[in-house]
């Protein structure tokens, strides 16, 4: 008499070595399985946006740290190498096309009317950067909940925040005849980011609030009087220019 040996793999994951991983994967697949037992996502995903959606769903369902690239690849019907052709890491999957959005952010400032005061331009630019339509708002909420709530993402997020602040600082520096490393442009970048993060934190704890209203209110607190340009300079910038 022989004993049947159960299949040792699920979508290429060895259950003998990754028991806990497979249990989590099974739970996730069960939520994604249709009446006929088919798993949505087969055939393999063919776009970065689709893979990003699957990543966010899995991170929301079982946590960022608890979700492996192997699980994501299995759920998407692709191999690890294909995953890394779309994203350099799991971190990048959370942030999505952030580089492309930063380029659009910089273009917004490039096209900004010269007559618009710097602080007002920054307020409008940040609101434009964070404006999303309909269903996208749900994914933004999930994305920001991960970014702000996952300790393992914080170091990577710091690099992204720095790049975002640099866009604001470059714009302010151009307007004020300074450099992005001078005090006022650097400070405006930090103030804009701090206001935006505070608005997002409030939005995440109170789903009845409107993100744009929160951003507008937070950014209106950034109203500077005449202050010197640069760390050691004493030349004041007229308040109307800021």
From TrEMBL:
Pfam families: TetR_C_14, TetR_N. Keywords: DNA-binding, Transcription, Transcription regulation. PROSITE patterns: HTH_TETR_1, HTH_TETR_2. It comes from the Bacteria. The keyword Cell membrane does not apply. Residues 68-87 bind DNA. The keyword Transport does not apply. One of its GO terms (molecular function) is transcription cis-regulatory region binding. Gene3D superfamilies: Homeodomain-like, Tetracycline Repressor, domain 2. Residues 45-105 form the HTH tetR-type domain. PANTHER family: HTH-TYPE TRANSCRIPTIONAL REGULATOR RUTR, MYCOFACTOCIN BIOSYNTHESIS TRANSCRIPTIONAL REGULATOR MFTR-RELATED. NCBIfam families: mycofact_TetR. This is Mycofactocin system transcriptional regulator. The gene is mftR.
């Amino acid at each position: 008499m022989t004993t049947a040996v159960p299949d040792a793999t699920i979508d290429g994951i060895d259950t003998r070595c990754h028991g806990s991983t497979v249990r989590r994967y099974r739970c996730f697949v069960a939520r994604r399985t249709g009446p006929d037992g088919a798993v949505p996502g087969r055939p393999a995903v063919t776009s970065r946006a689709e893979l990003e959606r699957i990543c966010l769903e899995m991170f929301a369902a079982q946590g960022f740290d608890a979700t492996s690239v192997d699980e994501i690849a299995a759920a998407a019907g692709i191999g690890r190498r294909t995953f890394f052709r779309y994203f350099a890491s799991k971190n990048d999957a959370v942030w999505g096309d952030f580089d492309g959005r930063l380029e659009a952010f910089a273009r917004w400032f490039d096209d900004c009317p010269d007559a618009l005061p710097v602080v007002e331009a920054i307020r409008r630019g940040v609101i434009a950067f964070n404006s999303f339509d309909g269903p996208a708002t749900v994914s933004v909420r999930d994305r920001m909940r991960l970014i702000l709530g996952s300790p393992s993402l914080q170091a990577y997020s710091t690099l992204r925040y720095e790049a975002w602040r640099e866009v604001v600082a470059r714009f302010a520096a151009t307007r004020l005849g300074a450099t992005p490393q001078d005090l006022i442009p650097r400070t405006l970048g930090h103030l804009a980011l701090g206001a935006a993060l505070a608005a997002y934190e409030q939005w995440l704890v109170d789903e009845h609030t409107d993100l744009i209203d929160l951003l507008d209110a937070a950014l209106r607190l950034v109203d500077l009087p005449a202050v010197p340009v640069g760390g050691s300079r004493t030349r004041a910038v007229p308040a109307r220019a800021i």
